[in-house]
Input
Amino acid sequence: MKRFAFACTALAMAALLLAAFCQPVLAGDKIKVEKADDLPRHTYKISMKAVQFLDDSAAIMKLASEVKKDLEDDLSKYDIQDKSTLQGYYASLGTVALLQGKYDVYLNYLAKRKELEIKEPIKLTMGMVAVAMVKAKQSGNPDMPAAFRTELRKLLDPLPYDLVQDNIKSAKGSYEMMSKNMTIGGMEAGVQPVLDKSKGEMSKDMALGLIGAAFTYRQILPLKDDAAAVYTAYIDEKAKAAAPKPDIWADRDVTLTEKDGKPVVMAVWDSGVDADIFKTKMWTNTKEIPNNKKDDDKNGFVDDVHGIAWGLHSDKETSLLYPVGDVKTERPTLQRRMKGLEDIGSNIDSPEAKEVKELMKSMPPDSMKPVFENIGKYGNYCHGTHVAGIASRGNALAQILAARITFDYHMMPELPTAELAQKEAKAEKATVEYFKKHNVRVVNMSWGNSLASVEGALEANNWGKTPEERKAKAREIFEITRVALFDAIKNAPNILFVTAAGNENNDVKFDEFYPSSFELPNMLTVGAVDQAGDETSFTSFGRTDVYANGFEVLSYVPGGDEMKLSGTSMSSPNVMNLAAKLFAKKSDLTVAQAKDLIIKGCDEKKAGERKIMLINPKKSFELLAGMAAK
Output
């Protein structure tokens, strides 16, 4: 069970798009469901390879009917309190309806999903390709691609471009990357190993993934080039007439020189930091002699000159950078591919984007796993450095203390165990104690874990005889690390912990994500908006205190290059940046005061029917000046 970083690549966007195809009633005497873990588990079985399933109509319809019955039974028995979960049920039932050719039923479920959607750009663009496909089929036009293009453009034209442009650009990039080989490769790498271990048995989530993949493979992929072409024409036309989105963040920023305060120690608790980039900003343990492979200060850590490091299984290591392998050989290629994925999602016609598109077209199915695992590996390698650059930007008083944890990048997760969880819990506590000992004022955590990820990893490894047994074991393992981290943070009241909300567009409390669901006086949970302050489609919610820029944020990656990345991983260190500057300016500031200055300095902004709080460093510093004057 390992944590995962909250950076949002175009690859993740593509996965979300594919998931959209696979995934109000009075409560009465229904059982109230207030967290995802309270929902029943269902299992299904197929007697063929996952790839064979994609071409077997009878098998697809059989599984779809079985899943439909369970989904409908759940909705009749349970009063599900979470809107995102209800949307998932309706989306899955809608996919089954499309497979069955029941188009009016699909449109009804789509309407229910839209009623529940709290983000206006998602509501406006939800299900557009499926609706265009339905209307094209109902039109009677024998030229299906031409009819589909016409219907899709009709749906796009009335939309407010300034509101939906990011979603449309991301969708365009996803369709450009889609291919049969990618779908087949995903089945072979991510699904078949599980089916092999379980003799064809699978959970509801995996069954929904198979059904969604089959729908995409059979009905969406034949139209993907048409969808990309329509999106391209729409974007090109609208972009010419539209004013570029303003960037509100530069005018709000505050810069500190060495004369503006006192040094502040800020911990980047992440995948590692390239200390060579931040030579003048790295915290230094003066009691430790560099690279002598000794624990000079007898604190339990060897060579902790600029911080500490933990390996995949929570063993102490000395390298502050995630081990990516042959850096000189691999890094340039992996960096280009990661940038290409980001550029595709943002509709940037870069050489890197073209390279990735060509790779997707030519890549055989058996290459998908190593290609995307290597990109994930590089993502882990660069994540912490990127975060550190954002967190320390414009602050000459910053002292970065690196605390490296290790995220797994493999498509098939390792088997979670209570023993590994205990080691991880011990490492979490030791890390926070290290922060306390070395006078850290603010910590950034752009990562998280969820109960569902633990249960999914148990399923992937075919652990347990029944779903109920897996559920209980997942809860046991999950609670070990969740409680340990909660207690460690709670017992460090003089440190402000800043965490990313997550990129799942979900309620983190209902789905039990941590640490973003923690409610503690020394924590801030951060959601993501774009350069104009508009809420991103990916940002999670449910326990979000403030929002900051998390869209195409420029920062360093190991080696000193700069790259734009998106995600709440990027919005969170923007808030840490502000907190660290406040602590540097007034060193005796308490955590409660710093948190209050950040929140009270925020600007309220409408996000549909809701209000979100955008950080405003200048206003927070004005409040600080007013406080000092009293």
Notes: Residues 13 and 549 are 18 Å apart (CA to CA). The first helix runs from residue 10 to 20.
